[in-house]
């Protein structure tokens, strides 16, 4: 089961700087955020990706997509050094420690968050960076190269006694500083300063301001304490006491960062166009909220005892779309719009030359019946297993969504992997139609509407019979991708997890074995190996491997599940963050980063393992 790559070769926590390559590894970053946007902070102290003021705003730093024109903001020692990164425990406050000969400097990065949710400025569009010398002395360089509009616009710059102003016709941003900043050329400002043990310097980037205030007016110390309290109090509400507390909490904190708090929208990832294979064309914008992601995040947070903001998003959709059953999209913008147009930024070369760089996502126009199953599943679990569904909610949403599935489940769609070349009857999609109706039946019984369930139960029987007949391949001894495409699909590992089939059913056990044999590489699984019409290959999809862990645990193969799970833990980066995919040969992280799906999968797999182990050896809680 072990991979050829040792965990040590995949998961370094000690780095040499300056970086001599044009691009750091995709997983060479930590993240900070304020539940409205996120910044990627490299192990060298460079912010190489940040969109302000929101997740889906145009970037102000995008060096991760073009090292020449993307823009960055770095704080690091002058000359050679080494670094390590860590989070302050149970927070999203990031610390990068630089070791310069016998000296040590700690860079603390955060974006302010407050416990006062009703305050419009509980999460201002600011990045605070604190430089503390804890040993010896060092020379530090602060270098800022902002590029508005995804690198298209060099801002006008001017300095004052308080810092730096940066602006163009659409954007204004300031950098308040405790040291003097010098403009070296258009679009580049630098501050070199010496720092000795016990000394501190502070920088605050604030979007939407014309002139910088004195740096102390941004109240960095107070904001730090509020932000630390915000994250620790949120983690304190989680009730997970299992065996993988550190990894589960980091995944939960990451999912919380990926949630747009004004609407509760859950992002798939905070980045765009990080490639699924370097040099290939599988580069997508993931800064949107998929119904499936919101439903799965609700599932993950429910396992941790937290309702999550995803529940807020689902109810926001309901409140703003009374005809949801006829107008349900598979994805939405963080503001709830489905007006998402895909375009190419040809002026950016892409990560390590991986073009095209896309913004927007044309998959919004695809037809995916599984979205209706997700919605009913989310309604069921977000209302305490259906017990809090009101009469109005039942008649406006539950009953119409169930009816829509009954009337349309036979229509072909694009499937969970959003294959653009063709539509088909995907087994995974059909199983989710079954699961959605099963949730609707439960809600109807709880709310005393059992008279509505007869057609739903009848359709469930039809769906199951059809999948068992057309979705099963006797030669392959496995459920297959679709009725026409007889190749294997790792998405079918979800079938027992959503209640379509028992995990110990012979057909499901054979399917698990076949998927591992044909799509597996150690603990890793590819989604599929069909020709999908796209250029280039892709890596192994981490979520599928976490599904595998849950399947094995439910099947009773606990030791096997543990071995797979423990290997998967080695594929996180130095901060326990996961990418979308992994190159099985090199262990390199691929795809947009960090990926919500991967962290949801970890939480689900850990809980399933804990449940089985508790039943065998007793709880660790």
List the keywords.
disordered N terminus, alpha+beta, eight-stranded antiparallel beta sheet, single chain, 31% helix, 621 residues, Beta-galactosidase, Chain A, domain 5, globular, nine-stranded antiparallel beta sheet
Q: How much of the sequence is in beta strands?
A: 15-25%
Number of DSSP strands?
A: 30
Low-confidence stretches: 1-9
Gross CATH architecture of the domain at 34-231: Distorted Sandwich
Q: Briefly, what CATH class of the domain at 34-231? A: Mainly Beta
Main sheet attributes: strand count, strand direction, barrel closure: 9 strands, antiparallel
Please compute the radius of gyration using only Cα atoms. 25 Å
What shape does the CA trace take? globular
Considering DSSP H and I runs of 4 or more, what fraction of the residues is helical?
Answer: 25-40%
- What's the pLDDT, averaged over the residues? 92
Sequence of strands across the biggest β-sheet:
1-7-8-9-10-17-14-13-12
Structural class: alpha+beta
Quaternary organisation = single chain
Do you know the CATH topology of the domain at 34-231? Beta-galactosidase, Chain A, domain 5
Continuous helix count: 14
**Euclidean distance between termini CA atoms:** 29 Å
Summarize the model shown.
With 621 residues, the protein is an alpha+beta fold. The protein is 31% helix and 21% strand. It has a domain at 34-231: Beta-galactosidase, Chain A, domain 5.
């Amino acid at each position: 089961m072990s991979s050829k790559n040792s965990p040590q070769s995949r998961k370094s926590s000690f780095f040499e700087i300056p970086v001599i390559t044009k691009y750091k590894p995709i997983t060479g970053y930590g993240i900070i955020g304020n539940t409205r946007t996120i910044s990627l902070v490299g192990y060298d102290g460079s912010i190489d990706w940040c969109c302000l003021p929101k997740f889906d705003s145009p970037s102000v730093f995008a060096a991760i997509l073009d090292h020449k024109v993307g823009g960055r903001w770095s704080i690091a020692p002058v000359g050679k050094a080494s670094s390590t990164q860590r989070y302050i425990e149970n927070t999203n406050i990031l610390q990068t420690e630089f070791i310069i000969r016998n000296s040590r400097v700690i860079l603390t990065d955060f974006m302010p968050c407050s416990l006062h949710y009703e305050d419009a400025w509980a999460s201002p569009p600011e990045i605070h960076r604190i430089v503390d010398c804890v040993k010896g002395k060092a020379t530090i360089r602060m270098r800022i190269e902002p590029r508005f509009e995804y690198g298209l616009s060099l801002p006008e710059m001017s300095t004052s006694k308080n810092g730096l102003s940066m602006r163009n016709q659409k954007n204004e941003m300031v950098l308040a500083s405790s040291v003097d900043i010098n403009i070296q050329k258009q679009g580049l400002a630098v501050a070199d300063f010496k720092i000795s043990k016990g000394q501190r310097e502070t920088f605050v980037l604030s979007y939407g301001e014309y002139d910088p205030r004195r740096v102390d007016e941004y109240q960095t110390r107070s904001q730090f304490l509020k932000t630390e309290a915000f994250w620790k109090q949120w983690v304190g509400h989680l009730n997970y006491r299992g065996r993988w507390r550190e990894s589960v909490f980091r995944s939960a904190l990451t999912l919380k960062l990926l949630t747009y708090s004004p609407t509760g929208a859950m992002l798939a990832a905070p980045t765009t166009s990080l490639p699924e294979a370097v040099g290939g064309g599988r580069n997508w914008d993931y800064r949107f909220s998929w119904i499936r992601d919101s439903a799965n995040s609700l599932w993950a947070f429910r396992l941790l005892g937290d309702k999550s903001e995803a529940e807020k998003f689902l109810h926001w959709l309901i409140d703003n779309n009374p005809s949801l059953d006829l107008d349900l999209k598979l994805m939405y913008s963080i503001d709830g719009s489905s007006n998402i147009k895909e375009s190419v930024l040809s002026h950016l070369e892409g990560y390590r030359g991986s073009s095209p760089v896309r913004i927007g996502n044309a998959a919004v126009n695809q037809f995916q019946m599984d979205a209706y199953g997700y919605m009913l599943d989310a309604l069921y679990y977000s209302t305490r297993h259906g017990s809090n569904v009101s009469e109005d909610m039942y008649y406006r949403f539950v009953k119409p969504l169930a009816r829509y599935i009954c009337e349309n489940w036979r229509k072909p769609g694009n499937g969970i992997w959003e294959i653009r070349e063709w539509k088909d009857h995907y087994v995974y999609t059909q199983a989710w139609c079954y699961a959605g109706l099963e949730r609707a039946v439960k809600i109807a019984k709880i709310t005393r509407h059992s008279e509505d369930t007869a057609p739903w139960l009848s359709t469930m029987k039809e769906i199951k019979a059809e999948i068992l007949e057309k979705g099963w391949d006797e030669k392959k001894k496995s459920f297959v991708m679709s009725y026409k495409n007889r190749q294997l699909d790792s998405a079918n590992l979800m079938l027992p997890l959503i209640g379509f089939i028992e995990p110990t059913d012979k057909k499901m056990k054979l399917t698990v074995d076949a998927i591992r044999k044909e799509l597996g590489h150690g603990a890793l699984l590819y989604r599929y190996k069909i020709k999908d019409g796209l250029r280039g290959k892709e890596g192994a999809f981490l979520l599928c491997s976490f599904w595998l862990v849950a399947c094995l645990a439910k099947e009773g193969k606990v030791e096997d599940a543990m071995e797979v799970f423990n290997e998967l833990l080695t594929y996180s980066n130095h901060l326990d963050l996961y990418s979308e995919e992994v190159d099985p040969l090199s262990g390199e992280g691929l795809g947009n980063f960090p990926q919500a799906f991967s962290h949801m999968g970890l939480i689900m797999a850990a809980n399933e393992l804990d449940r089985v182990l508790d039943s065998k050896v007793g709880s660790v809680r």
